[in-house]
Design a protein that fits this description.
Chain B: Belongs to the leucine-binding protein family. Chain B: InterPro entries: BCAA_transport, Leu-bd, Peripla_BP_I. Chain B: Keywords: Amino-acid transport, Signal, Transport. The complex is a heterodimer of chains A (298) and B (436). Helices cover 72% and strands 3% of the residues of chain A. With 298 residues, chain A is mainly α. A two-stranded antiparallel ribbon of chain A has the order 1-2. In chain A, strand 1 and strand 2 form a beta hairpin. In chain A, helix 2 crosses helix 8, helix 9 crosses helix 10 and helix 10 packs across helix 11. Chain A starts with a helix and ends in a 14-residue tail after the last helix. Chain B is of the alpha/beta class. Chain B is 44% helix and 19% strand. Chain B is built from 16 helices and 15 strands. In chain B, strands 7-6-8-9-10-14-15 form a seven-stranded mixed sheet. In chain B, strands 2-1-3-4-5 form a five-stranded parallel sheet, with helices on both faces. In chain B, a hairpin with a 4-residue loop joins strand 12 and strand 13. The radius of gyration of chain B is 24 Å and the shape is globular. The chains are: A mainly alpha (298), B alpha/beta (436). Chains A and B meet through helix 1, strand 2 and helix 10 of A and helix 2, strand 7, helix 8 and helix 9 of B.
């Protein structure tokens, strides 16, 4: 029983940060129909900003809790501003063009941001470990877990629920859903689609950066951080169905649990597990687990 | 044509031929330089731990040699009087890029030799290119034994021992210190270095601890960064020993994530190449961890004029003591200097060709800050050297991790003899090892 619980807890810890990253990617795709290659760069940006905030707080001998709050606030402010400016200043110029063009534009943004992070933070690893000790250690299922890791589970669940509630139970969310379903009809009903695009993109960037920030205290920030995340979040979004919040959640949990089970039971297969799940899902549901039914336009 | 004209033309031709011949055979002049390509990680995951210390070590040594300020027997300026002109290239970017960069160094920059490479994957990729171009390549750091055990090269040398020494030495240290190891778990990166290190350590452990059982055997991908699940599996396995060849940011992340979860309390941690993470980890490194440094390097180095020169000079220049990569590039440059000067002594003081350098380097022996380096394996192309191991102990006064309980092992105790593949040697009971 303990063994099973360990796999579940480890899987959920992995799934928690994967979900936050994938949620941002799926939202951007759902609203703007952009497969955002630069998404991993925003994750890295969040991690670097968080490290800077934590280091600055620690330099003033303030407690780690202040560092934790400072990193979340600074990441939220900077990432949403970057996302908004990028959408207004660059992406909007390419709307209406072929989807491949937008894909290439986001790839260009990815390359630029890779160099920008090197320019600002250098090439050496950066650490910001102080918040990692914030929640102590917890004995669970016969093991000790770092409280910080466990806290990530409710945080990501809360973010997921908030996004779901925001989309499905608020007027703004329904406007966003209307744009997702039928952009032309939304425009004709007076919806300012451009505004929805900007907010949705900024929110997607914010989520990616937030995932980076929450992960920052337990890893070393260094060049190359963004590439792996793109692959992982893209796989989750494909498994769950492009544009689906529920799909991102289920995809993240599936991948997290499968990877955890693999490490415990068959370590050699861990690297293939994500592709195995993706292949399995796509064989039976080529559009992912939770793709919405769309009415055919005449 | 009259006779005078013919004599004049013959004399002119003879003068031209003689001048050309003289120019070709003239001793190296003071103005002549030795252009040295240096490849090390200046960015990416290996930069902070290995690449930048190697670059800093290389710069220190080249500056000292160019000034003629190195201790004996290296006091002659540069390489045989020729100033060393480094061309430094970033190793980051993968093996395909490195193959292209190596061609550029030889064919566009016209370097006289290339010295470098930290990644085992890069070493495996670039060695055949140097061979194809018939240009001297000195591998300074990468650890996989496969380079010379799976191929034969004439123009390629490695001036440091491969990973077998790290793992055989580590198990010998554990045995000498009576470390209990009935059960063993391992976590290594899933690429050449991690896989080869794991194979050597497990095989050596099975020789010296015949009853050892391998419990959990993990191979996460390079740069995984997050090890939560792996740590659960390792803690759950509860082995006597957890072995790892992780390095750099991966090792730091592993230590940071595993210490609060009680792994160092449940199992003895043994790391084959961990000296370089001690300065950044500080008090986060658990006391009592057994570590190697891939040689008798850094805080485990033995006192000598050469070692004092590097240790103090590097520390003064960089504000931090030198770790393994700085030592390994130093021994590489000193070895190349010894080979160049040996070749020049043979050819009348000319700048040596690649083939002359190859002849001089083959089977060479020279002193380095980390001890004697001997090109004894792979027909004189692969070095062996002595190695040290120790335990960590945080020193709150100096705010650094000290290394205590140090043991040294001679080169021929921890390296296979010539002509024997590492894994075969280990599995055959490490016959012929000279440990006293």
């Amino acid at each position: 029983m303990n063994f099973f619980l360990t796999i579940v807890v480890d899987g959920l810890i992995q799934a928690s940060w994967l979900f936050i990253v994938a949620l941002g990617m799926t939202l951007v795709f759902g609203v703007l129909k952009i497969l955002n290659i630069a998404h991993g760069s925003f994750y890295a940006l969040g991690a670097y900003i968080a490290a800077t905030a934590v280091t600055m707080v620690a330099a003033h001998s303030l407690p780690p809790s202040v560092g934790f709050v400072a990193m979340l606030v600074s990441v939220a402010l900077i990432a949403s501003a970057v996302g908004f400016l990028l959408e207004r200043g660059l992406l909007k110029m390419f709307y209406g063009r072929d989807e491949v063009v937008l894909l290439l534009v986001t790839y260009a943004v990815f390359l630029i941001l890779e160099d920008v992070t090197k320019l600002i933070w250098g090439v050496n690893p950066i650490y910001a470990t102080q918040p990692y000790e914030l929640f102590g250690n917890v004995a669970f299922a016969g093991l000790y877990y770092v409280g910080y890791d466990l806290v990530l589970i409710p945080i990501s669940a809360a973010i997921g629920l908030a996004v779901w509630y925001g989309l499905n139970r608020t007027v703004t969310g329904k406007i966003v859903l209307a744009v997702i379903h039928n952009e032309e009809m939304s425009v004709s009903m007076g919806v300012k689609v451009n505004r929805v695009y900007a907010v949705a993109f900024a929110f997607g960037v914010l989520l990616a950066a937030l995932a980076g920030a929450l992960t920052a205290p337990k890893i070393s920030m260094q060049p190359g951080l963004s590439s792996d995340v793109i692959i992982l979040s893209f796989a989750i979004v494909v498994i769950g169905g492009l544009g689906s919040v529920e799909g991102a959640a289920v995809g993240a949990v599936l991948v997290g649990l499968a990877r955890a089970a693999s490490v415990h039971l068959m370590p050699q297969a861990e690297l293939f597990m994500i592709y195995l799940i993706m292949t399995g899902v796509l064989m039976f549901r080529p559009e992912g687990l939770f793709t919405r039914e769309t009415a055919r336009r005449i | 044509m009259d006779q005078f004209s013919r004599i004049h033309r013959a004399a002119t031709l003879l003068t031209a031929v003689t001048a050309t011949a003289l120019a070709l055979t003239a001793p190296a002049s003071a103005q002549e330089t030795f252009k040295l390509g240096i490849v090390t990680f200046l960015s990416g995951p290996a930069a902070d731990s290995f690449g930048v210390p190697a670059r800093n070590g290389g710069q220190f040594v080249i500056d000292q040699l160019n000034k003629g300020a190195a201790p004996a027997p290296y006091q002659k300026v540069g390489f045989g009087g020729m100033k060393i002109e480094p061309v430094i290239i970033d190793e980051n970017g993968g093996a395909t890029k490195q193959v292209q960069e190596l061609r550029n160094l030889y064919q566009r920059d016209n370097v006289d030799a290339v010295l470098g490479y930290i990644s085992s994957g890069d070493c495996l990729a670039v060695a055949p290119i140097a061979e194809e171009l018939k240009k001297l390549l000195v591998l300074m750091d990468c650890g996989t034994p496969r380079i010379f055990e799976e191929a034969k090269y004439n123009y390629v040398f490695r001036t440091a021992s491969h990973a077998t020494m790290d793992n055989v030495g580590l198990v010998r240290y554990m045995k000498a210190k009576n470390v209990k190891m009935d059960t063993l778990s391992a976590i290594n990166q899933d690429y050449a270095w991690g896989q080869d290190s794991r194979a050597d350590f497990v095989a050596a452990a099975q020789q010296l601890y015949p009853n050892v059982k391998l419990a959990t055997d993990l191979l996460p991908k390079f740069g995984a960064g997050q090890y939560g699940t792996e740590i659960s599996a390792l803690v759950g396995a509860g082995s006597d020993v957890v072995y790892s060849s992780l390095w750099g940011g991966d090792l730091q992340a592993f230590v940071l994530q595993s210490a609060p979860r009680g792994l160092p309390k449940r199992s003895q941690l043994v790391f084959s190449a961990a000296d370089h993470v001690l300065p950044p980890l500080g008090d986060k490194m658990p006391d009592g961890t057994i570590i190697g440094a891939r040689g008798a390097y850094g805080l485990m180095s033995q006192k000598s004029p050469l070692n004092d020169w590097l240790f103090k000079g590097y520390e003064a220049a960089n504000g931090v003591y030198p770790v393994q990569a700085a030592y390994r590039i130093t021994q590489s440059i000193l070895g190349l200097k010894a080979a160049v000067e040996k070749a020049m002594a043979k050819n009348g003081g000319k700048k040596p060709s690649s083939d002359e350098l190859v002849a001089a380097m083959t089977g060479l022996e020279w002193q380095s800050p980390g001890g004697l380096i001997q090109m004894k394996l792979a027909d004189g192309h692969q070095a062996i050297q002595s190695i040290a191991f120790s335990r960590t102990k945080y020193n709150p006064d100096l705010k650094r991790v000290d290394l205590v309980d140090v043991l040294y092992f001679p080169a021929e105790c921890v390296n296979p003899p010539p002509g024997v593949k590492s894994l075969d040697w280990i599995k055959g009971g490490m016959q012929g090892a000279k440990c006293n």
